[in-house]
């Protein structure tokens, strides 16, 4: 089977950058709220990761709206295509929303919002304990929803690549092989 | 390999792949292995499996076992009143810290007097710890929050010791009293806590809230304009006598409220400058009495209110909410307090919402 057409290098870079940041933010978040010893240090990192994700996601939304992704391989039928399209929208929405909710939640607790050690962000919600609680609950619900959605995403790519052998993952990977290897494979 | 015969064949509803059984097994195995690792990582992160960590939830459960479950209140220091006032800085603190609150001038303050323990309806006891939480400049970006106690040192120097103390105070099932031997075992297992008890016994509490000295207890680093980091412990020394305790369950809170309604109460904010040899990680140890102190200004509290929506009830006096110019020390209690306060705040804001 031929190599499917790739995403642009910018799209691929943004994807893997998001993957690394989100992976770190999720697991640091889960650990910190379950550890008295490391909470204070981890939450500082978690907030900075959150604002980085927000910035990267804004760039990604612009990139997605201005660049149409390459066509799917024929192994993705119309039914699966609908699920893939919806899950892509869901991931974009959750990844944009989650940092904003974290930011609003700190604001609603009346606390200063500090990232990168000393950068103070403006408060984006009024001091209100009820608003805080609703946002705090949402932050956890979205965290677990992200875990499930990302697991489904990775599972689908693994199954396509290993069972259906459609080289789906290569749409998103970088080419590190030498020219000789490529001509041999081609 | 399932090579489609016609590359241009439209994918249709199910796609063109017709994988062999071995390929399906290989894909399913890879997906299964990934999901197993992913789930194991998540369960480790949330402390369900793997080496056990001391969690904020364990502290909430510990307090609830010791004091009962009281919905909508703080898990510890459940009984309290909301107060407000201001801080007049004389500018002396700038020598140690760039924090805006130490520049000469006035900063609004919202605070909360409290009694240690998890029962909001407990009868006041002179021996119970008295707390004063303060948020300077709330809710601004330069705000400084602190939760102080009327004690010379903190009773324990690690989260584990604090947790073990809590476990030792849980009443014996069917009674209202803890097992006295549990406390003896606790002090035997935690010598710093035993030494702190000796110091605490040498400093009996004053008659009331108004004449109590409140101390931050944990050390922090103050950073000045030259970037010099100085270990500091802060305290509030009272400028008035307290009314004598009243009779009844609010023996300490009633006189406090009466005094605040009659006029403002004042404390002087003292910054104790630590020497490089002074421990910053151990809140059970007194610093030598000859350490230099800086009088940073005057705290005035002039209004008092029952806890309700929008006042101190809804503020988490998290000791890690610090302005630029004040930094946390290596005291392990700071992270633990921050973590447990956050868990308690989440739970009670929910109970006050639903």
Would you mind describing this structure in some detail?
The complex is a heterodimer of chains A (186) and B (354). With 186 residues, chain A is mainly alpha-helical. Chain A has a single domain (9-175), classed as Up-down Bundle (Fumarate Reductase Cytochrome B subunit), CATH 1.20.950. Helices cover 67% and strands 3% of the residues of chain A. Chain A is built from five helices and two strands. Chain A has helices at residues 9-32, 39-66, 78-108, 129-162, 179-185; strands at 113-115, 119-121. A two-stranded antiparallel ribbon of chain A has the order 1-2. In chain A, helix 1 (9-32) packs antiparallel against helix 2 (39-66) and helix 3 (78-108) packs antiparallel against helix 4. Chain A is elongated and about 55 Å long. The model of chain A has no long low-confidence stretch (mean pLDDT 93). Chain B is an alpha+beta fold and 354 residues long. Chain B has a single domain, classed as Catalase HpII,  Chain A, domain 1, CATH 2.40.180. In chain B, 29% of the residues lie in helices and 21% in strands. Chain B is built from seven helices and ten strands. In chain B, strands 1, 2, 3, 4, 5, 6, 7, 8, 9 and 10 form a ten-stranded antiparallel beta sheet that branches. In chain B, helix 2 (56-67) crosses helix 7. Chain B is globular. The termini of chain B are far apart.
């Amino acid at each position: 089977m031929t190599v499917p057409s790739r995403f642009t290098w910018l799209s691929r870079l943004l994807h893997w950058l998001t993957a690394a940041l989100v992976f770190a933010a999720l697991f640091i978040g889960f650990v910190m709220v379950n550890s008295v010893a490391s909470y204070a240090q981890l939450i500082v990192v978690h907030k900075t990761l959150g604002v980085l994700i927000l910035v990267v996601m804004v760039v990604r939304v612009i990139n997605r709206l201005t660049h149409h992704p390459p066509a799917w391989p024929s192994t993705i039928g119309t039914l699966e295509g609908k699920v893939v399209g919806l899950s892509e929208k869901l991931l974009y929405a959750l990844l944009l929303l989650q940092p904003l909710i974290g930011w609003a939640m700190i604001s609603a607790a009346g606390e200063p919002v500090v990232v990168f050690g000393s950068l103070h962000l403006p408060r984006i919600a009024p001091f209100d304990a009820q608003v805080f609680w609703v946002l705090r609950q949402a932050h956890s619900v979205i965290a677990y929803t992200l875990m499930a959605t990302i697991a489904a995403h990775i599972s689908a790519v693994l199954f396509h690549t290993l069972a259906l052998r459609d080289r789906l993952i290569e749409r998103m990977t970088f080419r590190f092989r030498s020219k000789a290897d490529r001509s041999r494979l081609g | 390999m399932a090579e489609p015969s016609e590359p241009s064949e439209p994918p249709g509803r199910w796609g063109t792949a017709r994988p062999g059984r071995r390929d399906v097994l290989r894909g399913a195995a890879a997906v299964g292995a990934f999901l197993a690792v992913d789930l194991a990582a998540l369960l480790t992160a949330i402390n369900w499996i793997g080496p056990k960590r001391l969690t904020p939830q364990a502290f909430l459960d510990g307090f609830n076992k010791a004091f009962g479950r009281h919905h909508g209140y703080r898990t510890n220091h459940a009984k309290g009143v909301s107060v407000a006032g201001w801080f007049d800085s004389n500018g002396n603190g700038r020598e140690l810290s760039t924090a805006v609150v130490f520049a000469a001038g006035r900063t609004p303050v919202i605070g909360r007097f409290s009694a240690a323990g998890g029962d909001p309806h407990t009868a006041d006891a002179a021996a119970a710890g008295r707390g004063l939480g303060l948020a300077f400049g709330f809710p601004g970006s330069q705000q400084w929050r602190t939760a102080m106690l009327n004690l010379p040192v903190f009773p324990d120097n690690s989260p584990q010791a604090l947790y073990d103390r809590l476990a030792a105070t849980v009443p014996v099932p069917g009674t209202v009293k803890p097992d006295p031997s549990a406390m003896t075992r606790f002090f035997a297992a935690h010598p710093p806590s035993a030494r702190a008890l000796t110091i605490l016994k040498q400093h009996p509490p004053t008659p009331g809230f108004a004449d109590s000295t409140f101390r931050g207890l944990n050390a922090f680093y103050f950073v000045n304009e030259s970037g010099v980091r100085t270990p500091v412990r802060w305290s509030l020394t009272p400028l008035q006598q307290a009314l004598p305790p009243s009779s009844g369950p609010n023996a300490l809170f009633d006189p406090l409220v009466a005094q605040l309604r009659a006029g403002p109460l004042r404390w002087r904010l003292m910054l104790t400058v630590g020497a490089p040899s002074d421990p910053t990680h151990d809140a059970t140890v007194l610093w030598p009495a000859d350490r230099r102190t800086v009088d940073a200004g005057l705290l005035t509290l002039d209004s008092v209110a029952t806890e309700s929506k929008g006042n101190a009830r809804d503020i988490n006096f998290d000791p890690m909410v610090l302005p630029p110019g004040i930094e946390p020390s290596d005291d392990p209690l700071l992270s633990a307090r921050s973590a447990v306060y956050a868990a308690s705040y989440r739970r009670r804001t929910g109970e006050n919402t639903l």
